[in-house]
Predict the structure.
Amino acid sequence: MSTSPIRLLIVDDHNLFRHGLIRILGDYAELQIVGQAANGQDAVTLASQLQPDLVLMDVNMPLLSGPDAVRQIKGQHPTLPVVMLTVSERDEDLFDAIRAGAAGYLLKNVGAAELIDALQRVLAGEAILAPSMALRLLEEFRTLAAAAPREPAAAPSPELSEREMDVLRLVAQGLSNKEIADGLKLSEHTVKTHLANILAKLHLRSRAHAAAYAVQAGLVRDVRPGR
């Protein structure tokens, strides 16, 4: 993990919760709160102005919803991770956020230390889900995989190189960038480059999309939820 504080943008339309979260997280040296917003539209603007390391965002907000804000932020800053922090346990909100490109989906009953650990893991290249939501996402992947015709075990796309296929399989197995780098004897920077190329070539938005793609293509049997 990096020893530099995570530069964090917090987005939530409930003022009491947002200010309370800022006050609590402000006591941790691992974090630096660089900005806050009360709606998705301001989040998009501040993401460009402040260039945070990570955005922590609610789902249901005025002017622009969390998932819609994620789409705009990822469109402008593809490598900027956005993690949803919400009370919503609706499948629709979870799937919409993941489709938009969110790197994680956590519930507001998470503890501060657990939250910080999750954010650090996201920056290390992991996709993070609340355990209850991970089970729902896995079930959705299984449903999609069962409904989709099975592709041969060969590359699902002729555009992917053999090394990119190796990275895609390991992403789908739930490994972080560091774990992939160690396993393939590559640098983390090289793994990030391969992953960016995979997402671009397959027109996908996030690691979760890449994992779902690999499951549907028959490259792996299942995906592993965030630890």
The chain has a mean pLDDT of 82. The radius of gyration is 17 Å. The domain at 6-123 is CATH 3.40.50.2300 (Rossmann fold). The chain has two domains: 6-123, 138-216.
